[in-house]
Structures are given as structure tokens and as C-alpha cells.
Specification:
By secondary structure, the chain is α+β, with helices and mostly antiparallel strands. It has 15 helices and 11 strands. It has 3 domains: 52-213, no CATH class; 223-284; 317-436, no CATH class. Residues 62-137, 141-213 form the PatA-like N-terminal domain.
Length: 438
């Protein structure tokens, strides 16, 4: 846990309790205060003496309003970095867990980002079902509890968890206030192995939201603006617009409206923008005040899309064989719990409904009793759909099988004891490493 200090009226740096004092041990010397954002203090020792501390440690920090987090995350992806990206904003703290450049998990203090809210928002459960489970279980176990009660299918839970992580990722990329920290720390296998999302795909999807938000910021410069109702609904508004309009009293900011309506900052900003455009609402920089002047924000620059290029013929069979070995390994571990038949049935249901991957390569395939996919049909499908797999078909093929693998691991994690689950994750990691071997 970070030690807390406060700056008093005499500009003195004071620890909030005595436990904060050891944090400064070994840091004696003269420090220069660097000019930074209001939410960040940076001191640099003069002259520098060097040295290091063990992990976890902050290796990079900065102003989220002065440096595009999308560029930082793109660099981390390309360099295959592992660790945590943490962002502190007025809307709360969010974090991304990254292993070898790919997103492996996310956390958020924002109420709209909670799994229960995501499940309700996507229509998989209703609020009464979520509240009933929360009376019996902690929020961290809500997904598993809903599956055990038969309210939710395992592949639908996986889809919702993936959506939740994606939404937190987009919120971080869209952040234009606060401070960010890059933390060098190992990720334990239990929290990091059950999902993997392509960072590059997430970044491409974020481009649209970045451009949209830049458009919204022309009228709503930040989330701390107050919103007041100017006229009632005309009966033609969408459900979210009517809901937010009913909350407008001039005493809530855009961020506070998002919390109350259980919407992400991007979504509530979009709703408020529509209400402003329709003349239903007005903005102010003070509670119940006259609408404040809005300073337009520069529009986000368009990112260049990758240019397709031809590639030499490749043999996908070695990739298929390694993943089939992994699939069988997962199935064998589950079979020790006597749950292999249910496990394969759930996996095939998810595969047939395209809940695991949108890749055409997997269409019409099903897992055999031993947990593998039929290699011959898989190769035929790869050859048939290769033209649809982009400029790097083998990478797209591997990503599709990786998506399947992470669902199977996610599903197995709901059935296995912690030690068996962690050991399985270690063996899978070793098998994946054989694909990187020269």
C-alpha cells in the first residue's frame, strides 16, 4: 500500500501517520520539484545518486492530459512488456494487467465498470438476480455464483468478463485528466491467465471512441461540468437519454450523473451531448448556475490504418498441433474432477454459437471427447478462409485458437482447486513457449 502524505498550509510535506516516515529512508539529499499536472508531484534528486528498489515499483509516471495513453499502451504492446498500468482520475482508479504486451485483466473503482453492472447492461441477468446473489456472495464471486445457480452460461460469463475488461481499457485510453503510473511487478498466474485480449485490436477499436469523444469535448470540455434540465422529454428520447434527463437538477456533474445512471464516462458524455444538442439540457461550471462557456478541444488526430500486404505461404499445422495438445491437457485436468463431459458440452455450445471467436476458421467445428479439434478439418478451414484472415493469416489463426484456449482455461478455473488451476496455467505457458522456439 502506498504511504500517504499531505501538504499543509505552510507548504510542508507531512506524513499522515508515522508509518509514512520509513518511505523516505535512504532518500536524504536535495530535490528539485519538477513542474507537473495538479494531480502529480515529481521530485528529482540533485545531483542524482542512482540505485534501485525491488518490485513492485513505479518505473514511469506522467500527466494523462499531456501524453496520449494510447501511444504508451501501443509501445508496451510492441515491446512485449509485463506489469500494471494504473490511472488515477477524478472518476476513480483503473488498472490494466499486461503480460508480454497483451491485456490479461483489468480493475476499476468506477461503479459502472463492475461485473454485475455489465451483466445487467448487456441483458444477461436482471438487477434483482444480481442483488440476490450479492446478498450471499462477495462481488468478486458474482459471476461464478450466477453460473452455479444456472442463471448464466459459462460462455456468456466469459463474454461479459471480456466486455468488462474492454470497457475499462477504453476508459483508460480515453482518459484526459489525472496521472498514470507504469508499475513493474509480476502478475500471478491465477489472476492473469483466464483471459487474453489483443492490445492492438483494442487500440484500433478505441480510435473510433477517441474521435467521438473529441467531438463531444467541443461542448463538454470535461466531466466536472454541471448539467441542468432546460425542458422535459418529448417522448422521443432513447431510454438512457430519458433516464439521465430525469436526473438533471443542476447539482450533478457529468461524472456524478454517470455514477447515478451506472454508465461509463464515455457513455454518459455521449448522452449529455445529445441532450445538449436537442435543447433539453444546459451546462454550467457551477451548481445551478448559468451555462459556462465551453473551450473547444483539439480534435484527435486520425491514426493510419495498417496497409495490407502479401505474405508467403505458411504451414498452420504446427500451430494447430500445439493448441490441440493444450486443449487436451485442459480437458484431462478437468476429467480428474469428473466434469469432462459437461466441460466439452459447454465448450461445444460456446463454439457453435461463435461466443469464443468470430474467426471463420472455427465455423462448423466441434471438440472431440479428448478435448481436441479435428486437425484435418481445421487445416481445410484455414486454407478455405485464408484470404479472409488479413495480411498475416497465421497470426490470425493463432489468435482464434488462443481465444478458444483462454475460454477453456476460464471455464476450467471455475471447476478446479486453486493449486491445480495454477499448475495447469504453468503447463499451458510452457507449451505456448514451444511456438516461440526457433
Amino acid at each position: 500500500m502506498s504511504q500517504r502524505f499531505r501538504i499543509d498550509g505552510a507548504a510542508q510535506l507531512v506524513p499522515e501517520d508515522r508509518t509514512g516516515i520509513p518511505a523516505l529512508a535512504g532518500r536524504s539529499g536535495t530535490y528539485a520539484l519538477m513542474p507537473t499536472a495538479p494531480d502529480l508531484l515529481v521530485f528529482s534528486r540533485m545531483p542524482p545518486e542512482g540505485g534501485s528498489i525491488p518490485t513492485p515499483r513505479v518505473v514511469l509516471s506522467g500527466d494523462a492530459g499531456g501524453f496520449p495513453l494510447s501511444d504508451l499502451i501501443a509501445f508496451l504492446s510492441q515491446s512485449r512488456w509485463s506489469g500494471v498500468v494504473r490511472v488515477h482520475t477524478p472518476g476513480g482508479e483503473r488498472s490494466l494487467m499486461i503480460r508480454e504486451g497483451e491485456v490479461r485483466g483489468a480493475t476499476s473503482e468506477e461503479p459502472a465498470d463492475r461485473l454485475g453492472e455489465v451483466l445487467v447492461r448487456l441483458g444477461y441477468v436482471d438487477r434483482a438476480q444480481v442483488e440476490a446473489v450479492l446478498r450471499e456472495q462477495s462481488p468478486s464471486k458474482i459471476g461464478r455464483a450466477l453460473v452455479e445457480k444456472g442463471v448464466l452460461q459459462a460462455h456468456d460469463l466469459f463474454k461479459c468478463v471480456t466486455h468488462q475488461v474492454s470497457e475499462i481499457f477504453h476508459a483508460i485510453v480515453l482518459c484526459r485528466e489525472g496521472a498514470f503510473f507504469l508499475i513493474d511487478q509480476p502478475l500471478d498466474e491465477k489472476t492473469g491467465h483466464s483471459i487474453q485480449l489483443s492490445t492492438q485490436s483494442l487500440l484500433m477499436d478505441s480510435i473510433r471512441k477517441i474521435d467521438e469523444l473529441a467531438h463531444f469535448r467541443k461542448r463538454i470540455p470535461h466531466g466536472r461540468m454541471y448539467v441542468a434540465r432546460k425542458r422535459p422529454s418529448d417522448g422521443k428520447l432513447e431510454e438512457d437519454e430519458d433516464r439521465v434527463l430525469a436526473m438533471l437538477d443542476g447539482r450533478r456533474t457529468v461524472l456524478e450523473l454517470g455514477h447515478a445512471a451506472r454508465l461509463s464516462e464515455f457513455d454518459v458524455t455521449k448522452v449529455v451531448f445529445r441532450l445538449l444538442e436537442g435543447g433539453f439540457a444546459g451546462l454550467s461550471d457551477k451548481p445551478v448556475g448559468a451555462p459556462a462557456a465551453v473551450v473547444p478541444e483539439k480534435a484527435a488526430a486520425q491514426r493510419a490504418r495498417p496497409v495490407a500486404r502479401t505474405v508467403a505461404p505458411v504451414d498452420a499445422r504446427p500451430v494447430a498441433r500445439v493448441f490441440n495438445f493444450i486443449f487436451r491437457e485442459i480437458r484431462d485436468e478437468v476429467s480428474r474432477q469428473g466434469m469432462d463431459h459437461e466441460f466439452i458440452a459447454a465448450a461445444n455450445a460456446a463454439l457453435s454459437g461463435q461466443a469464443l471467436s468470430s474467426s471463420p476458421v472455427l465455423e462448423g467445428l466441434a471438440f472431440a471427447a479428448d478435448g481436441s479439434l479435428p486437425e484435418g478439418r481445421l487445416m481445410e478451414s484455414f486454407d478455405k478462409h485464408r484470404a479472409q484472415l488479413g495480411s498475416e493469416p497465421l497470426a490470425s489463426f493463432r489468435q482464434a485458437l488462443s481465444d478458444v484456449m483462454f475460454f477453456l482455461l476460464f471455464q476450467a478455473g471455475e471447476l478446479l482447486e486453486s493449486r491445480a488451476d495454477e499448475d495447469l496455467a504453468r503447463r499451458v505457458k510452457e507449451l505456448l513457449a514451444t511456438l516461440e522456439a526457433p
